Amino acid sequence: MLDRRRFIKNSSALAFGGMLLPNQLKSLLGRTSAQPVGVQLFTAMSIIDKDLNGTLQKIASIGYQELESAFSMKGGYYGLKPKEFADLAKSFGLSWKSHHVLGAPFKMPAGGAGGGQFAKTAIPKLPPMKTLLTDHQQLVDEAAEGGVEYLVCASTPIKTLDEIKTSMEVLQKTGEACKKAGIVFAYHNHSAEFEKVEGQIPYDLFTSQISSDILKFELDLAWVIKAGINPVDLFKKHPGRFPLWHVKDLSKGTNIPVEIGTGYLDFKPIFENASTSGMKHFFVEQDGAPSPLENITTSFNNLKKIIG
């Protein structure tokens, strides 16, 4: 039997809980579960095709729980079919949440992927790959086969208004196909999307001309900050439209991707506004990482200290 003091204490707690709005109570309860930390496998591009199992095992041992896949020198999904890769990831306790594909038409820029923003790093020449221009339905079907929740356009040409128009048409039709398949379609930015092209800002065109039920966004925090934009301002301008983030740091002066916590980005205020953004998953990424497994270990440990 409860003693009188414990009874009063428990009754007060229940009464307080009843006074909370459902969302407030949900928020408090949600704090008991830590946000899983994911990693973008492009970070491990230099090693993953040489030892897929070993790389995934190490990623899991560091403490990462979620994966976002990208390009593979073996083609497909690191040489596997979508379901095979999903099962392999699961065997290591990893959840495959998202996959990157190329927009259309796509031309590899000088210096490698990413719009040449880390041209000093060694990015290998990629094999021919399917793009959303000609293969969007197949890429959507493969994502569905693998059970991923998100399909992300990693990059698309935006140097001219004609390129932007073509890219938007491709994003629209891919988003419609994803919606039918029950997959969320998103666009991943670099810094170029925030630079004027013939008087227009590509990112503004994407957000205004394509509806939010067709296109969400994966915000690369580093590249948007490099462009001079505060991520929190974007969250407030487009609340709920950023279910995915790329969390990467940049070195001061050179803006080369480095381990989280060793660059100049301040992540705390960004994470404090995660609910406004609509963030569901985030992935640590370091483009052209010189020692991928060591680098993502440092990033994981530092990120845990930064965001608790």
TrEMBL record:
> What Pfam families does UniProt report for this protein, alphabetically?
AP_endonuc_2
Where the record annotates domain Xylose isomerase-like TIM barrel, the positions are 57-292
Source domain of life is Bacteria
UniProt keyword list: Isomerase
- Report a single Gene Ontology molecular function: isomerase activity
InterPro entries in the cross-refs = IolE/XylAMocC-like, Xyl_isomerase-like_sf, Xyl_isomerase-like_TIM-brl
Protein name per UniProt: Sugar phosphate isomerase/epimerase
Lineage at the top is:
Bacteria, Pseudomonadati, Bacteroidota, Cytophagia, Cytophagales
